[in-house]
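Q: I'm writing up a methods section and want to include an example of the input and output format. Could you take the sequence below and give the corresponding predicted structure tokens, formatted cleanly so I can copy it straight into the document?
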Amino acid sequence: MESVKKFQRNAVIVLLLIASFFGGHYYGKRGYEIEIKRNIPIVEITNRHAYPEEVDFALFWEVWEQVRSRHLDRPINPQDMVYGAISGMVNSIGDPYTSFLDPGQNEVVMSGIEGKYQGIGAELGLRDGQLIIVAPLDGSPAKEAGVMPGDKILEIEGESTIGISLTEAVSKIRGDEGTISTLTLQRGTDEPFEVEIRRGVITIESVTWEDKGDGVVYIRIGRFGSETNSSWDQVVRDINLKMLELDTIILDVRGNPGGYMDSAVYVSAEFLARGDVALYQESDLGKLTEHRDNRSGLFERIPAIYVLIDRGSASASEILALALKENLGDIVTVVGENSFGKGTIQDAKDFRDGSGLHITVAKWLSPDKNWVHEIGVEPDVEVERTTDDFAEGRDPQLDKVFELIGE
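A: Here is the clean output for your methods example:
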């Protein structure tokens, strides 16, 4: 489904990327057409749809005229007023994953969708109104600076983040390669601390793998983007050509903020002879739509699968973990920390002027109809990876997997 393929285009927007992650359905109605006469502070407004009819727009136009004609800084750019009004309307919903982006913001977000952009390399999210780091991305300046999943962002360049939207945060933190982004972070209840991060060009590899010996293969999925399916197919071919024995697969989706739902379905199907990967529902009372891929996967008979997750594993990563766990049972062991908990799906629509709308259109449920939104996936074996572990190159979560394999 084409709409589902757009699933990544917001998670992220939450992606700061600074960046990820989206798909669904949106049928828009443009309410007004605005023509700006060059150098003349006159705005011609055509009301194309008076919908819904019970809404009285008189107050809107009265405020518009008061600001336009009386504000100290007049003349006010009417197009900025339009964008601000639309943003306020969308933000009034109270959903951090539904947002309107003016052309500049939309360009910033879209430049990171395919996995290459300039910034610090971290996905942002909102949890209980607080701006947080969902996950620093592999090989990113943010990860090298010690930024961790779940870190609260209290200030950006010395300015408080109270009331900030995700798009505003992305715009503030994104910047040219070589420039510095200064963030004030808080980890848990510890004292806030300041970190300076030199922005760079971020390129995220979608899928990589490594032969760990003794029939064990390690596969790292960094994100679920537009090229993930082809990258996954190449990795699967390489594994089957180069590994004479294959008994255990380790799937690492730690710090993976998600992406296209179709990619999570595609990867999951490699392990499933049958069964749903996820269920898609457009409203609480809406029909549940099954999502599966019926091709014959090459990993269907693998006797042991380990899935590594952490607080930065979100959306499509959670779909994959739950699809394997609930369809394959004890064959699958989930190791790590409770995941982020993003169970909604966004659709992205671009407009003629370069602006865009990311709107939550549905939610996804696991094969057993579990909705993990703001709850997350609970690991079978909980293992924390601390700041010191990161700093000193230790990986107790992966070590635990090898301990379980040896039992």
